[in-house]
Amino acid sequence: MPSSHVSYRKIHKELEGLVLETFGLWDENRVAFRWRHYLPNHTCRVRSMCIELGKCEGGDLTELEFAGTLHDITKPYDGVILRDKNGERAVDENGFWGNEVLMPARNNIVTELYDKYNLYGSIHHISGAFIAGKILEKYELGREFIDDVCSIIRAHVKPLNLTSDELDRAYAKVENQIIYDADTIDANLGYVAFFRNVHIHAHRAIQRGTFDMKEYVDSIQKWVKWSRNIAANLFTKSGREIAERRQERKQHLCKELIAEEGDFGLNMQYGMLGVIDYLVSQTAAPNLTEELNYLQNRWIPQRRRWIEEGNCPLGCGAARQSLSWVIGFCRTIKAECHGKE
After folding, report:
1. What stretch(es) of the chain map to CATH 1.10.3210?
2. Structure-derived torsion over alpha carbons of residues 157, 162, 165, 169, reported in degrees to the nearest 10
3. What number of CA atoms fall less than 13 Å from residue 314's CA on the CB side?
4. pLDDT, tens digit (0-9, with 9 covering 90-100), for 7-58
5. Class of 8-183 per CATH?
6. Which residues pair with 31 in a beta bridge?
């Protein structure tokens, strides 16, 4: 066990700084399904949800906090997704996608360890757990604590070819179950996942030529349908409950966007269509924290003033109703960022 004088808070603060420093060693703005600010934002959200689920499921909150912070520390090495001769995503014997190795532009202790132990080509949950273990050994944390944190990090990506017995052993600890659930939910469900979906779709559309709002709204239905079974495959009761609520939110959002198209002009100015339009304008360098702050501190107050001044050519009552939906959206996505809702 760790020595009694160990300051978990101080150590975690140092590790948090190291993780953010590591993410900044690569200069690429976009790689596959992520962008420069995605990993820092995602890491904070997964850690927050790990803690919230840990409170509900009786997990070790300190282990979860450390593992949540470190879980994607080697993810930046994942470059372009490899394709087979048919153009499909290439997978290894465990069913994991293959990626080209993306080398950093600068170095620190993480990249030095990665190189020293020749971790090139290993999946990031394996290399990340290994690197985390080497870094944690520098502190007086105790072997059991370090091994537990590394086990949790390895569990955030689930091997597809495990037998039921192997799966039971790999996810016997509730902390391992929690990080898998938190990571899966954050990427795929709720308003946070909607933000991610907008920027993935918009980036592709802009590369092809231009972003078409109607085309995007139509695509939401397929996305919602694709994710409908995710909750059932999660491990924890609390995770499934959050996932189901977030999936219901996605379904409601889909219906709302389709309805908003009926009053396109007004909702491009006051509704969720206008929010999407703003998010698309930030697709060159998305940052959920900054974009949410802008919506709450600039976008919404500006439209409130327009309504108060009666500056609503398309009807202030309808504008107020559309804006109330946006206000609720921003409030909920902020709660999701803290691992709630």
Report:
1. 8-183
2. -30
3. 15
4. 999 999 999 999 999 999 999 999 988 999 999 999 999 999 999 999 999 9
5. mainly alpha
6. 34
